[in-house]
Amino acid sequence: MTTATTDSGWRAYHQTTRSATYGFLSALPLLVLYETLIVWANADASTPVRIGAELWLKSLLPPLGAAGHLALGGIVLAVGVAVFWAERHRDLPLRTGYFCGLIAESALYAVLVAALISRLVGLVFAAAPPPVGDLWTQLALSIGAGLYEELVFRVLLVGGLAWVFRRLTGASAAYAAAAVLGALLFSAVHYTGPLGDAFALSSFAFRFLFGLALNVLFLGRGFGVAAWTHALYDVFLVTSLGG
After folding, report:
1. 243 assigned to some structural domain
2. What is the domain range of residue 25?
3. H-helix or E-strand spanning residue 144
4. I need a labelling partner for 40 at 20 to 30 A (CA). Which of 11, 50, 193, 216 fits?
5. Closest listed residue to residue 92, CA positions, set 159, 28, 24
């Protein structure tokens, strides 16, 4: 009886926290933290910084100057509210324990990614591209990466690829193909454009495996877990808590 109850509890937690509703609600603290920290970090900066993925999304909007960041945040919130409204018929339980569990689960995945992937390609945290700016700027960018890079690379890219491949092939392998191709594109985009890094096979392999791990988490556990895992991984990196 105890085992059945435990299984049922885990199954309910897994299915509920995988929903778009929990993905949206769990991402709200990341949005608030990022906007608060990035404004603080840029207050005295001669050259303000923002997450690249956020700027890509902003480029899709009409020129709005400084208000563009607020407009993008408003759109993200509006889309989230629309998703929340669309899932209202599912009668999902909103439980504090589920949100705490989601963050704790993500922290565990962040540690596992650091321990397994970094060591797998012979890299340590210091071998990753060095953080830019002071600690508060690094923390802001870490949290922003968890939010906006997951929106672009996981929700839009991998989610879109999985939808297309599924329609074309009708096979479950469509998700594997989307995860691999999405990871390749995630890694490659870091070397494009005027602000791209110089190509190095070691960093490309690291980013590919990191992207692949996040793709698997997104497809298996949803946006919330992927976003928090990415954010916490980067926070562990810049604060040297990961090793």
Report:
1. no
2. 2-238
3. helix 135-144
4. 193
5. 24
What are residue 51's phi and psi, to 5 degrees? Answer: -70, 135
d(CA 182, CA 156): 10
Assigned domain for 19 exists: yes
Q: How many domains does the chain have?
A: 1
Residue 145 burial (10 A CB sphere; 0-12, 13-18, 19+): buried
pLDDT in tens, the chain (243 residues): 344 444 468 889 999 999 989 998 999 999 999 989 988 888 877 778 888 888 777 777 766 555 556 677 777 778 777 877 777 777 788 899 999 999 999 999 999 987 787 677 665 444 555 555 678 889 999 999 999 999 999 999 999 999 999 988 877 789 999 999 999 999 999 888 776 778 888 788 888 989 999 999 999 999 999 999 999 999 988 887 655
Tokens of 92: 């999902």
Do you know the residue count of the chain? 243
In a domain, 176, yes or no: yes
Is 26 part of a structural domain of the chain? yes
Q: Are 136 and 196 in contact (CB under 8 A)?
A: no
